[in-house]
Amino acid sequence: MQKKNWGEKMQDNKQTMGQIEEEIKKFRKLLETYLETADGEHIKELINCMDSGWSLDEAQHDKLIDMFVNYNDKLYRDAVSDAYNRRYYEDELKEKKINAGVALLDLDDFKLYNDTYGHSAGDMVLYTVVDVIRKNIRKSDKLIRFGGDEFLLVMPDIDEDTFTNKLDTIQERVHSERIHGYSNLRLSISAGGVMCIGETIGAAVERADKLMYQAKVNKNRVITEREAEDGSSVIDKQKILIADDSEMNRMLLAEMLNEEFEIVEAENGQECLKKLQKYGKEISVVLLDIMMPVMDGFEVLTYMNKSRWIEDIPVIMISSEESVTYIRRAFEFGASDYIKRPFDGKVVYQRVFNTIKLYAKQRRLISIVSDQIHEKEKSNQMMVQLLSQIVEFRNGESGQHVLHIQTLTELLLDRLVQKTDKYELSSDECYLISTASAVHDIGKIAIDEKILNKPGKLTKEEFEIMKKHTLIGAEMIGKMEQFKEEPLMQTAYEICRWHHERYDGHGYPDGLKGDDIPIGAQIVALSDVYDALVSERVYKSAYTHEEAMKMILNGECGAFQPILLECLQDIQDDILEKIHYK
């Protein structure tokens, strides 16, 4: 083939560049048309134009059309909930004037759930709430994720009664939903709804926002503008206690806050304490002056700390004092904030609102964590008792033995803690001992049933085998390497191995003496002996409570720590009340 000379190559390049310029002009013209109309037909024309000059296979062609046609939809969708996003509201809705029902819906405690249970749980909450809302609105309605935990609902051409009913239905159905795998998580929304007539959606949103925050006072509530105006929806305002000896200052603060809050006033520290005693946790925040007659602000804080009110009722100090010493002292005494006079209305309102909101979230978090701990403890108890029931089943004994031992252990621990601080047992340690008591005989799972359920007295050889259950149980627990550092496992090991030791050293398996025996094992040992005596066994009839007490106190069942014997005597009435032996 004859090679092209330099001139021919230049001519070919000019032709190619000319074609490219023509294609760019066509592309630009079609793109401008698209930007004006944004419909699918122009997009297809654009792609077909590109197709004629560029090499696109069928799959690439369809993919490119889809990319352009659905571009706006993807641009305006929230990635997590698939509702419209805030950008859609700003670009397409905010300045529109349409007749519509407009509502702002807040997911109560969403951030708290997100932080407590993790983002996967938070995402599940969003999916669930959005799904409920969508099932109860029309195709023409718009659902926008307005913020992290807020949704905007715009319902065009809807009458007020239907709009209100829709919001109530959504609120009820969200509250009835459950999140799989998170039994403690309770969904609710707080919503404010208004009718938008002859105004922009943005203006209606501002009004709905105020109603939503009123609804959030009690949570799980819907407040519409009509209800707020005619008083059919009673709004429980949060109480604020203003303690200041200046009537003028109290009046100014009340004027700034009384639209959103119920105001309670006190003219000195002593009166402030009386109001706190009267209303208790109904007070959402105290605005407290420092310099007051009868009792000053620091004295009030001292009393609130002593009575532990400060843990539940936040205090914002208000004063004209600018001394760093005063400010530091206020915070050291537990004040949440410090506002200097003269007052700025918006600043005061916002700081009061933020403080109340912070304390409310803190209380809710404590409640959630407490529920989680309770559920975890309940699950632990169930698993421990299930394992213990298996042992008791092989032993031919009633499953009540495990429950009796736990109850007796708890009663003895409570009395021991009251009677002496010798062992310095914390509430957590007491809980571990009572929980671990349920597995005291777990080693019996490896003992022959013929020995366990023998109706008569064991031979010496059989008794030696029986005694091994203490070592077997301890070994079983000791082999759980992944949990060996856990306090519960360590306590369970001690109880399994040494609950047959005696205070005088005549027990087994190691012949420990006195307080060389862990106190948990000593308490379970005494509980075990008492329950064995008053319960019927295959080898004996049940003794009465009086007979059992006499045998234990006389040393017929081995020696026990004297102070524990005193505790046993002290709790006799509680035993008979809480454990109903046949």
Structure summarized in a few sentences:
The chain is α/β, with parallel strands linked by helices and 582 residues long. It contains 25 helices and ten strands.
What does this structure look like?
With 582 residues, the chain is an alpha/beta fold. It has 25 helices and ten strands. It has helices spanning 6-37, 40-53, 58-69, 71-75, 86-93, 110-117, 119-135, 160-176, 201-215, 225-230, 247-257, 269-279, 297-306, 324-332, 345-395, 400-419, 427-436, 449-452, 460-467, 469-478, 487-498, 519-534, 545-553, 562-570, 572-578, and strands at residues 100-107, 142-145, 150-156, 189-196, 221-224, 238-243, 261-266, 283-289, 315-319, 337-340. The protein has a five-stranded mixed beta sheet with strand order 2-3-1-4-5, with helices on both faces. Strands 7-6-8-9-10 form a five-stranded parallel beta sheet, with helices on both faces. Helix 9 (201-215) links the parallel strand 4 and strand 5. Helix 16 packs across helix 24, helix 20 runs antiparallel to helix 21 (487-498) and helix 22 packs across helix 23 (545-553). The longest helix has 51 residues, at 345-395. The model is unreliable at 34-40 and 50-56 (pLDDT under 50).
